[in-house]
Design a protein that fits this description.
The structure is a homodimer.
Chain A: H1 11-18, H2 22-29, H3 37-50, H4 56-63, E1 68-73, H5 78-95, E2 98-103, H6 109-122, E3 126-129, H7 137-145, E4 149-155, E5 163-167, H8 169-182, E6 188-192, H9 198-213, E7 223-225, H10 230-242, E8 249-252, H11 255-267, E9 277-279, H12 285-289, E10 296-298, H13 301-316, E11 325-328, E12 331-333
Parallel strand pairs in A: 1-2, 1-3, 3-4, 4-5, 5-11, 6-7, 6-8, 8-9
Antiparallel strand pairs in A: 10-12
The structure holds a DNA duplex.
Chain lengths: ~350, ~350
DNA sequence: TGACCAAATGACAGCGCTGTCAATTGATGA
DNA sequence: TCATCAATTGACAGCGCTGTCATTTGGTCA
């Protein structure tokens, strides 16, 4: 096994060993067309033999690319971030790209400037935008101005232009509401997500659609404005439980908020799920660890982001994209937090 | 404002504008000594004016560095990872380094090979090892062989040679156990962390020390072997609660396991915290969201990793390190999961 | 005043690769 | 058979910077 004390092989060594020119090796490495199969094989053999690894710096300098893409996120739950990273990493690893992570405050406009500065500094070739960053057209415009390719991980909306992957939040929300309905609940509260996140609207729509489809009316007093976090979930649940005719079930737009609802109910001494059924959205680790364990919806975050990364990398390679966008489905995870109303 | 359509300024443009040579600009950028103050100022002014940003690729190629460091972790909780990333990111951002994240399976040796391959491929200059990776001497040796600098984020043990930051787990474990003791508990169960993580031992030691200091004996039957995760925590708690003389309090070596204990107790209809007090370790998001909210220990993870990154970068810059290692203290976060025994 | 020396600065090659464009090859059809 | 042309391959410059080593500067001391 070659020790690292021996100098690293360069493309030149490979060319010599394979008996071809520099440029031909370069073509093989970059999977360019117009290389004879037999030549390609020779080169691959030489690469193998020398354990050659191209230098990202040299490639970057010569080709003015960085082979780096950034994953931009604005602090959703840490489990969301972790799962997204996992997906991005997987795709990047397979495609020979590096991944730079970049948390950012999605609102303040000066932060956008700072973010762009960072991205330019590291010379990333492209960026993956996760919600709610993908809801921000200004950011996308600025990225385009800077000539940074981008792909959005976004809820399903008709109007997307560029690369994107989405997930059918509305349908999932409808399904989980239907699950509650099927258990016999008719007064179902809903705790909205953060108003600036477009997913919040999607999920509300699913909720409404389920009710309407079964002939129920949408009662505005059963809908509270949350902000996706535990504290807001708890507060909203308290409001709902204080109603003269409180709901027998609550659908919270995130697991964190659903946990808040659980705690609010516990504090009032309610028996769960008998006196209050609760469902969440996200399938965060908490969902399985709270009491009772939450029924919730799992988005295929890792797969979505991985797919987004591949889309982006394909674009950077100027490969004709198979699909400009793809849609993923969520999955219900039913646990112990739902029962028929007492 | 210069549009990106104009070509990016190069070091050459800066040199010309400042009226100095290429090399002098390079010296200023790299904070090398032996540059006159007035010269430095001229250069900085020119950099400012041109909005010059050095090209990482060119610097990397010419200097055979990458200005990239890797954060290696082996799937502790996602909140741990997120907080560690945050710290690393902060330091890297400030120091002009890029951060590559690298989850990895810490055990299988072939994985170590794969990991090294990836690190070599991306040509990182250094790596930050978080527990339990920092417990693996083989990995450290291999990194050294490959000439990749590294710094360990590790529990406090006397024997460290290289760069490291640590945290006094033992002391924190002792303190939280003392808290339980102070509430009047005398039969305190302990759920150990994963046997392969050295922190598990540290925390056990703190637990034992607290008991001994107050004149209690360490009762082996009150100590269960967990694996840091929720499921093992729940199982261990069940074992403890099945004892003919069950403990009145449990100190779990992680919040996930403490949540497991909480659920086990709920399932038996115990009144919490009256009939069972529980404390955890980590201050994960769950800790504040479960019921009752967990008293736990918070490690300054972000600060530790940030400090580790700075240590590493200093080393890479060949700056004389202020300290080869530094120690951080944990903080108790007391919430609602502890009360005197009924 | 000049010799001497460290500090400050500069000239230049070259890091390892890709883009451009030119040269070669080999197959095809007249 | 030879011109023709696409497919394949190669030569070479140059991406933007840093390392090495040479040169200049300015101060100090005899």
């Amino acid at each position: 096994m070659p020790k690292s004390s021996e100098l690293k092989a360069t493309i030149y060594d490979v060319a010599e060993l394979a008996g071809v020119s520099l440029k031909t090796v370069s073509r093989v490495i970059n999977k360019e067309p117009n290389v004879r199969g037999s030549t390609r094989d020779k080169v691959h053999k030489a690469i193998e033999q020398l354990q050659y690894q191209p230098s990202p710096s040299a490639r970057g300098l010569a080709g003015s690319k960085s082979f780096l893409i950034a994953l931009l996120y604005s602090n959703p739950s840490s489990s969301y971030v972790t799962r997204a990273q996992q997906g991005a990493l997987e795709a990047c690893g397979a495609e020979g790209f590096g991944l730079l992570i970049q948390p950012c405050d999605y609102q303040s406009p000066d932060r956008v400037g700072e973010l762009l500065h960072r991205l330019k500094e590291s010379r990333v070739d492209g960026a993956i935008l996760t919600p709610p960053l993908s809801d921000n057209p200004q950011l996308q415009q600025r990225l385009a101005d800077e000539n940074i390719a981008c792909v959005c991980v976004a809820p399903r909306t008709g109007e997307q232009g560029g690369l994107s992957v989405c997930c059918d939040d509305e349908r999932a929300a409808q399904q989980i509401t239907e699950h509650l309905l099927a258990q016999g609940h008719s007064r179902i509260g809903h705790i909205l997500g953060h108003p600036d996140h477009s997913v919040s609207q999607q999920r509300l729509r699913g909720y409404e659609r389920a009710l309407l489809a079964q002939g129920f009316e949408v009662d505005r007093s059963l809908i509270q404005q949350g902000r996706f976090d535990f504290v807001s979930g708890k507060q909203c649940a308290e409001e709902l439980l204080d109603l003269s005719q409180p709901p027998t079930a609550i659908f919270a737009s995130s697991d964190d908020m659903a946990c808040g609802a659980l705690v609010a109910a516990h504090e009032r001494g309610l028996k769960l799920p008998g006196q209050l059924s609760v469902v969440g959205f996200d399938d965060s680790p908490q969902a399985a660890q709270c009491w009772p364990a939450l029924s919730t919806v799992r988005q295929p975050i890792s797969e979505m982001v991985s797919s987004a990364a591949r889309l982006l990398i394909g674009e950077l390679r100027k490969q004709p994209p198979d699909d400009i966008q793809s849609t993923f489905q969520c999955q219900l995870h039913l646990r112990d937090s739902v029962s028929p109303p007492e």
